[in-house]
Amino acid sequence: MRFGPLEEIVRQPGVSDVAVTPDGVVWVDRGSGMVRETSVRPFRSAQAVRDFAVRLCSQMNCRLDDASPIADGSSPEGIRVNAVIEPLVPQGAAICLRVQPRRAPGLEELAARGMMPVSWLPLLRGLVAGRANLLLAGPTGAGKTTLMRALLHECPATERVVTVEEVRELGDIGVGDHVALACREPNVEGAGGIGLSRLVRATLRMRPDRIVVGECRGSEVADLLRALGSGHRGGMTTIHASGVKGVGPRLIALGLLAGMEPRTVTMLAAQAFDAVIHVDRVGGARRVAAVGVLGERGGVLVGDTLAQLSGGSYVAADGRGWTSFVGRWTESSGDTGGSSQARQVVRMEGKGYGP
């Protein structure tokens, strides 16, 4: 796929996002937030931005015109493209590219970049080896997909992984037996569309060892909860939430879109997920901000934070809960030394409990 005047920027190492505003100015995120790009000349007019957006989308077989002024798709290499044209924007078009690295960083590389402590690697590997169902939460651009790809690279080569995405972003996850499903937009007559819910249901007939949903943000949550709650292990998905405590209300809201009662969502979600990993941007850097679990109290779905980032270091919000959690999942990886290291990386404060 060709990206015209943005080709050189898109191919640069370290670039995660590229945006073009309706006035033709180019903005780039290299890991420290969006910065105006001076190495590329701005588009000469609003019409030039619109024409470029239409050409981009046509390469992905996405319709972008007056009758369909919003387009969302991805290139074969997993670069996600979102475009909006006037009259939804004042003039021309607004374009945003989410760029995936050509070589997905592994857990060790992410730890070296400071996303999480190195001593937490046995815990994260244990969650994968123990086939925990994981919910990765956080805002846009915080690193949810990046962390998911790194975790999926830890899956045994003998497993069959079925991934479901609205548009393709995960790319090569390092697993040979990988079925990558993606939604299909309806045609100009409004027919032929295949959504996330239908694809999630289809995974159950594909003999999956792991079901992975790139992002859960609609009625597909019902199908995923039913799948994970019926015995499927090792699943992963991402969700937009402000923190571990915000995951419960978010899941309830998504369940309502699927016509599910809050009580039903609570019962299913509390059993479906073994861990919640919240990622966020802290000082411009992507960090694991908290680790927690979901539970039910008084019929309400709650997220309990076990460890969190505070003042530049990790502290235990629940010392005994964190120790039990680490011990359980690092034993899954067979690294008992890693269990001790992961417990010690968190400074126990105000809990009357030492490491």
**What percentage of amino acids are in beta strands?**
15-25%
How many alpha or pi helices? 11
CATH class of the largest domain: Alpha Beta
Structural class of the secondary structure composition? alpha/beta
What percentage of residues falls in helices of 4 or more residues? 25-40%
CATH topology of the largest domain: Rossmann fold
As for the number of domains, it is 2
What does this protein structure show overall?
By secondary structure, this protein is α/β, with parallel strands linked by helices. The protein contains eleven helices and 16 strands. The strands form two sheets. It has a ten-stranded mixed beta sheet, with helices on both faces. Helix 8 crosses helix 9 and helix 10 (319-332) packs antiparallel against helix 11. The chain starts with 6 loop residues before the first helix and ends in a 7-residue tail after the last strand.
